[in-house]
Task: inverse folding
């Protein structure tokens, strides 16, 4: 591999952002600015598809590895992908252009800066998913806070300041402990290179504390109950593009981190703490689903449903079985698509009516039929109807959970039912029913770019629902290797 | 006296000060010339130091009372360059307050001379001499805007409290002399009896004096008032330049004569460090004045630098030096912004005056944004690396408590940096500020912002530059 394809993926959005930075933002060149950003992110998307095409699915080795000395004798800039990370990279490069398209006329103020922030965010997110050095990972993981803070704070709703601060401080607080753990790993093992760490492993007597430190960071980011409270606030106040990025990709960083680091580096500790994760996941699934049922605000409802879905993900990861982890990854991809689409759907009606409250709407099925159809698809995908990608993920996770712990699986299945309840009820209250609010009659149906964005998300949602093989083939070998490695380390522990 | 050329920088700078004084007396309206000459002198001295002494391994002069080694040369160059930049960006500010006088550059030069002596000192008396020289110049600088009540108050307060701390320091020196029979660091190292606990009192008193100079908690009380009251360009000088010299003395005093007593002073340093980090972070939250805020922020940054020293390892010393250098660059950038906040010849220094800055001055606020995130220690900016090196050496010594408290303090500190960013970016805009800034001011802002932003591309250089510092 001579061409540094991963570094190009990381750098390309940055170059686009730099280009935008040096372009004067005027009223008449807004479209041009948007096209520049869109072009950059599309190039990145095709590059990542090409990466998937080149990707060898038969091995669990890291591919396209680049290894350069960065700080002499301390940190190497090392990136690479395996079956687990490549899907997240594609998800990122797929969602970002849609995000840019969705930035429409509702944002007049500082459009240029918003596009720059989104592109920089893309850089950091891709960096998180392909870094193979703990310090590099931390760097990207944390750096993402800066653009996201600004996106929420500058372009957000009325309580944006509070939400931006909460988001920033919660996440920062979680991750500083991870930094301590990373430096400790450096002194314990002498390296922060993930591949080397997989081989030599971390001494079991340190694993518990290190696991907890990583957990504190990932739990906030996932978010798991009880540190989830930043998410509804951040989602509600963020602009549509920000919510989409947050829900579709940012939350996946934690799930990815759990698989890559918690399972990969600290198997003994993961074994010990599995009951903790199970408990928190089940609480998250049931508790936040119940909260979602009571929400008046559409964005808040979807935010709480995100927490519940991420509860499934953490549950699946820590079943430590092939189906469970595969299910988790598919669930994350599916949730990335579906939640992005749902936030876009809310964005569509918000742009028209400037209200996110559910009771503003009702009976709009005849006014906006196209919207109703697409919204229906994503509602059903969110509740995990067979034939959508949401079903595949949840089904695999529950299957693995039943093998491992019957009670947990039963409780989690209960969450599925409540999930169906709140999603359908939401749909019923917004789309069906009597048309009471006469302002709604002036609503315009989806325009072309909105149809395009939502269909782009609907197609893979349905496609992977019927035929998840491309996803499963990509991740299968890497996961089975991860599990073998895990079991080997558990058995051979001194 | 064969190696007299090694103190040539000090000799050159002191002769220059005398020359400038005479020039100032005999030539009318010479403040501009003297300003420019002083800049030249600082630069020449830095070049001489670089050429003559940077390659010197370790040489002691004048009966071992002055030491020239890599640490001293390196810190001298940093001091000189920092003073150079401060002097470079001050004139506009001073002119507006009508205090652009010949004394200003000369006082800065003499305090720099004092600092250079401190940095090179290998003897308690030489060290004290240097300290007093720099302090006396600083007292006058603090009250430089003498018609303003606040400035005079700042100078007086600084003088009284600093004199007290000097007294304590001197008492500590005399105790050490009493128990070892010498004031020379190397002799003390050989002479003292580790079982003689009374010498610890001497160390404690000296540490108190030094902690006062770098405004570590609980000896920080003067800092916010003095920083607020002094003219802004002087505050900039206060926040960065004296800290370099004081840190060097800290290193030398603790690691050369008293390294064997590490158990005794390590606890003190850990306490100073934790207290400074936490107090600086918490107390800054309520501030309304930017200069006061930066005073508290500098207190907490000093805490991190001390955490590096508290490890008692060479790695720790190096990380502290890196920290202080990155801190200097960040502060330079911050104050450049502060010096740009002027409208019709009035300078604004309240946090609320930044409100909506991003609308009227996108570049200025972007720079400030980068500097503030860096001060908060968010990757991938330089401030993160500074903290990373510190915690790397702290965790190497298994001082987990210090590391975790320090990192939690960064979260608290992040809050007030974010508050400034919030005011700049999220709030309604006010009238715009003047845009006719001096070229040098713009240069220093751009320069420091770019270094902070792009540090992550070449992180090795700075690490290599300090890797020659070997005290233990």
Result:
């Amino acid at each position: 591999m001579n061409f540094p394809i991963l570094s190009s993926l990381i750098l390309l959005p940055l170059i686009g952002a730099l280009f935008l930075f040096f372009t004067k933002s005027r009223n008449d060149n807004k479209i041009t600015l948007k096209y520049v950003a869109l072009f950059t992110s599309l190039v990145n998307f095709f590059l990542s598809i090409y990466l998937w095409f080149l990707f060898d699915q038969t091995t669990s080795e890291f591919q396209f590895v680049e290894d350069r000395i960065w700080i002499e004798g301390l940190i190497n800039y090392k990136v690479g992908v395996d079956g687990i990370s490549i899907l997240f990279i594609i998800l990122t490069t797929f969602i970002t252009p849609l995000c840019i398209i969705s930035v429409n006329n509702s944002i007049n103020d500082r459009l240029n800066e918003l596009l720059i922030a989104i592109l920089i965010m893309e850089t950091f997110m891709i960096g998180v998913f392909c870094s193979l050095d703990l310090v590099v990972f931390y760097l990207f993981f944390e750096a993402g806070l800066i653009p996201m803070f600004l996106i929420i704070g500058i372009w957000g709703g009325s309580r944006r300041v509070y939400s931006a601060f909460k988001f920033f401080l919660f996440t920062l607080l979680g991750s500083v402990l991870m930094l301590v753990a990373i430096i400790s790993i450096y002194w314990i093992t002498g390296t922060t290179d993930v591949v080397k760490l997989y081989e030599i492993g971390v001494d079991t007597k340190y694993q518990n504390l290190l696991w907890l430190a990583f957990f504190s960071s990932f739990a906030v980011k996932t978010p798991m109950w009880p540190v989830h409270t930043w998410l509804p606030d951040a989602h509600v106040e963020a602009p549509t593009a920000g919510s989409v990025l947050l829900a579709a990709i940012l939350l996946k960083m934690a799930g990815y981190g759990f698989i890559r680091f918690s399972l990969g580096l600290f198997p003994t500790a993961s074994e010990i703490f599995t009951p903790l994760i199970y408990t928190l996941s089940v609480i998250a699934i049931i508790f936040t689903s119940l909260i979602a049922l009571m929400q008046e605000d559409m964005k808040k409802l979807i935010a709480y449903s995100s927490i519940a879905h991420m509860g499934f993900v953490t549950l699946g990861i820590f079943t430590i079985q092939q189906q469970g982890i595969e299910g988790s990854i598919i669930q994350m991809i599916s949730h990335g698509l579906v939640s992005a689409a749902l936030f876009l759907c809310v964005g569509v009606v918000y742009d028209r009516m400037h209200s996110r409250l559910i009771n503003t709407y009702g009976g709009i099925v005849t006014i906006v039929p196209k919207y109703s159809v697409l919204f229906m698809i994503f509602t059903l995908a969110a509740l995990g109807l067979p034939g959508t990608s949401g079903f595949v993920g949840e089904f695999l996770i529950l299957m693995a959970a039943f093998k491992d712990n019957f009670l947990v699986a039963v409780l989690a299945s209960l969450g599925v039912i409540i999930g169906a309840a709140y999603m359908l009820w939401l749909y019923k209250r917004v789309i069906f029913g009597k048309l009471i609010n006469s302002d709604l009659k002036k609503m315009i149906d989806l325009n072309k770019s909105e149809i395009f964005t939502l269909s782009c998300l609907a197609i893979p949602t349905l496609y992977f629902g019927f035929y998840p093989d491309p996803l499963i083939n990509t991740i299968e070998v890497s996961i089975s290797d991860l599990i073998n490695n895990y079991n080997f380390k558990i058995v051979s522990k001194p | 006296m064969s190696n007299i050329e090694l103190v040539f920088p000090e000799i050159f700078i002191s002769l220059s000060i005398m020359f400038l004084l005479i020039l100032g007396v005999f030539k009318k309206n010479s403040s501009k010339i003297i300003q420019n000459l002083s800049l030249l002198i600082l630069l020449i001295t830095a070049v001489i130091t670089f050429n003559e002494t940077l390659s010197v391994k370790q040489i002691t002069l004048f009966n071992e009372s002055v030491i020239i080694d890599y640490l001293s040369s390196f810190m001298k160059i940093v001091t000189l360059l920092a003073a150079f930049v401060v002097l470079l960006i001050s004139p506009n500010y001073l002119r507006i307050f009508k205090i652009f006088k010949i004394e200003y550059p000369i006082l800065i030069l003499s305090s720099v001379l004092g600092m250079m002596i401190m940095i090179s000192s290998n003897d308690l008396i030489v060290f004290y001499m240097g300290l007093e020289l720099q302090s006396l110049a600083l007292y006058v600088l603090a009250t430089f805007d003498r018609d303003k009540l606040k400035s005079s108050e700042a100078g007086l307060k600084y003088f009284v409290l600093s004199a007290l701390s000097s007294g304590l320091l001197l008492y500590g020196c005399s105790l050490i002399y009493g128990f070892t029979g010498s004031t020379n660091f190397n002799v003390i190292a050989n002479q003292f009896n580790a079982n003689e606990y009374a010498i610890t009192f001497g160390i404690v008193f000296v540490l108190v004096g030094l902690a006062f100079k770098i405004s570590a908690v609980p000896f920080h009380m003067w800092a916010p008032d003095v920083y607020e009251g002094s003219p802004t360009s002087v505050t900039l000088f206060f926040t960065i330049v004296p800290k370099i010299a004081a840190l060097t003395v800290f290193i030398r005093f603790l690691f050369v004569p008293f390294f064997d007593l590490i158990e005794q002073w390590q606890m003190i340093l850990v306490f100073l460090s934790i207290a400074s980090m936490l107090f600086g972070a918490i107390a800054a939250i309520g501030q309304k004045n930017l200069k006061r805020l930066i005073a508290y922020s500098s207190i907490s940054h000093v805490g991190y630098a001390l955490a590096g020293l508290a490890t008692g390892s060479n790695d720790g010393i190096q990380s502290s030096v890196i920290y202080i250098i990155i801190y200097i660059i960040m502060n330079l950038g911050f104050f450049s912004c502060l010096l740009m906040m002027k409208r019709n010849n009035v300078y604004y220094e309240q946090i609320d005056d930044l409100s909506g800055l991003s609308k009227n001055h996108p570049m200025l606020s972007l720079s400030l944004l980068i500097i503030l995130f860096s001060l908060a220690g968010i990757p991938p900016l330089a401030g993160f690396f500074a903290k990373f090196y510190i915690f790397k050496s702290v965790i190497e010594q298994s001082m987990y408590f210090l590391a975790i408290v320090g990192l939690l303090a960064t979260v608290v500190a992040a809050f007030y940096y974010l508050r400034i960013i919030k005011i700049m970016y999220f709030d309604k805009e006010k009238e715009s500020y003047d845009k006719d800034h001096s070229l040098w001011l713009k240069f220093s802002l751009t320069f420091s912002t770019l270094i902070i932003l792009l540090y992550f591309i070449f992180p090795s250089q700075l690490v290599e530059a300090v890797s020659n510092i070997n005290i233990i």
Observations:
- The mean pLDDT of chain A is 86.
